[in-house]
């Protein structure tokens, strides 16, 4: 099935393409991820709000070493990765019918709605309201169904 990807916001498309790339790398490929990266990914999945220092400690690595391997293998810093996870959690909550954007931001792990709005705007190039009410979400889902 051919899908017109020209109308999808490039930043949203990049986020989804990176998630699919990461999934492929994590499952295995020609250059498997370092053990620290795999441990960090597992810890972040289980405990998304754990501080970076605690994640490195639980992965049995020092923060600099874990961060270096994570960035090399994933292509994002640990902080940027965790921010994107929060954004995806936020989008998921709103998709599930949680229409209160402020409450969804708190549940997703943002300190405030203004922080969520700022990060959302930087990543997606539009406000959360524009994204959810202008149909950008539907365009992205139609263009990037795995």
List the helices and strands and how they pair.
Elements: H1 10-27, H2 35-46, H3 52-58, H4 63-74, H5 78-95, H6 101-107, H7 113-124, H8 128-133, H9 136-143
Order of helices and strands: HHHHHHHHH
Low-pLDDT stretches = none
Would you identify the CATH H-level superfamily?
A: Homeodomain-like
**H/I helix tally:** 9
What keyword list fits this structure?
146 residues, mainly alpha, Arc Repressor Mutant, subunit A, 9 helices, 68% helix, globular
What does it look like?
The protein is mainly α and about 150 residues long. It has one domain: Arc Repressor Mutant, subunit A. Helix 2 packs across helix 4.
Summarize the structure in short.
This protein is 68% helix and 0% strand. With 146 residues, it is an all-alpha fold.
